[in-house]
Amino acid sequence: MPDPRRTWTWLLAGLAAVALIAGGVAFWLAPDPAPMEEPITGSSPVPSPTPTSPLVVEVGRVEEIAVGGRLDRGDIRTAVGSVRDTLTSLYTTAFVEPTGWAGGRFPQLGRSFAGDARVESRRDVKDLTLGPTARELEAVRPRRARVNMRILVGAEGRPISTIALMEFRATGLGPTIGEIPIQHQGRYVLRPVEGRWLVVAYDVRGHLGTGGR
Prior knowledge:
By secondary structure, the protein is of the alpha+beta class. The protein contains four helices and six strands. The chain has a six-stranded mixed sheet with strand order 1-2-3-4-5-6. A hairpin with a 3-residue loop joins strand 3 and strand 4. The longest helix has 24 residues, at 73-96. It is elongated, with a radius of gyration of 18 Å. The relative contact order is 0.22.
């Protein structure tokens, strides 16, 4: 089975080659988002379940890299909205909505992925989601969800690939473990697949409570 980190490296190299051949564009990733805060130690009791809060993903910086010099602003706006919708769905399933956790199995996770990445997401479910900790939580309260995007625009002026840098912070609440901090960052490559923008490669890291993963 392909290593997702190798897949990530291959895709980035391919995108860079396309840009250099077509227009001499220098393509690089933005620096990682600001370092995560140190995990908060300790816990406090939770008196009663907290209703699920809807996840709202904020779009931060958006950069376009045009291979052919043309930009179709309408298509770019559509791509930005679709990428945000995909990541909102991914993080809602993986962290925010308890009905999608299924005791730590997250059966709907693959809907946000395509190709090999969909298969690999099942193997990496612990890194992409709450993992087994979901069994100890009743709710997750989002505190920050922000995505920066770098969009590669093809010769016809239409987006063909997007690198999304996602930062997510929240508080998990459970009857026995109290409140725990949740922190997760990911780099995702998305491409249009049958009318949707789906993840085709990823590199993620996160912390739950006082432990890292």
